[in-house]
Amino acid sequence: MSTTPFLALLVAGALVGGPPPATSGSRWSWPVGDGDRPALAAPFDAPEEQWGPGHRGIDLAASVGERVTAVDTGVVTHRGRIAGRGTVTVTHASGVRSTYEPVDSTLRVGDRVERGRGIGRVGDEAGHCAPATCLHLGAKRGATYLDPLTFFGVRRVILLPVPSV
User: Fold this and answer.
1) Does residue 3 lie in a domain region?
2) What is the CATH number of the domain that holds 79?
3) Which parts of the chain are coiled coil (predicted)?
4) 155 to each of 15, 62, 103, 128, 148, how far by Cα in Å?
5) In whole angstroms, what separates CA 109 from the centre of its chain?
6) Which domain holds residue 89?
7) Structural domains of the chain, count
8) What is the pLDDT of residues 13-71, one digit of tens each?
9) Is residue 5 a part of any domain in this protein?
10) Pseudo-torsion of CA 11, 43, 133, 78, nearest 10°?
11) What is the pLDDT of residues 122-148, one digit of tens each?
């Protein structure tokens, strides 16, 4: 019997709140990148407490003025400025809210948006990725932040040591 430790692959779904299904029964569509998966500039890092440090979404590489589309069908429940940046929040049928920033948008609260339809353009405000430009995409159900990548069918692979027997 070998004494060499082996590695096991653990494929994790949502790190907080269980695996979240997209509201249409399919995966979310990428909000930038013309349907192709954009480069991930920064991953989700769940805060230990609601008010604690962490990264409550993902940052996707984008260009100023690039079209931003709704990841899934829903209703605009917020459009405004937070910390000097334009933001849009869409609430989906599942109750999950997707939030985009920085986004310049003319949508109004109550507007219905369809999956893949334009909701605005990437704003020129400095954000998470300065000096580069990115789109921050958050996902939240109730008070729980969720890893948006899981809505796209992306799973985080974690290597774990397996004790030899």
Assistant:
1) no
2) 2.70.70.10
3) none
4) 10, 22, 27, 23, 10
5) 21
6) 16-159
7) 1
8) 333 333 444 344 568 999 998 878 898 888 887 777 777 666 688 989 999 999 999 99
9) no
10) 100
11) 999 877 778 888 999 999 999 889 999
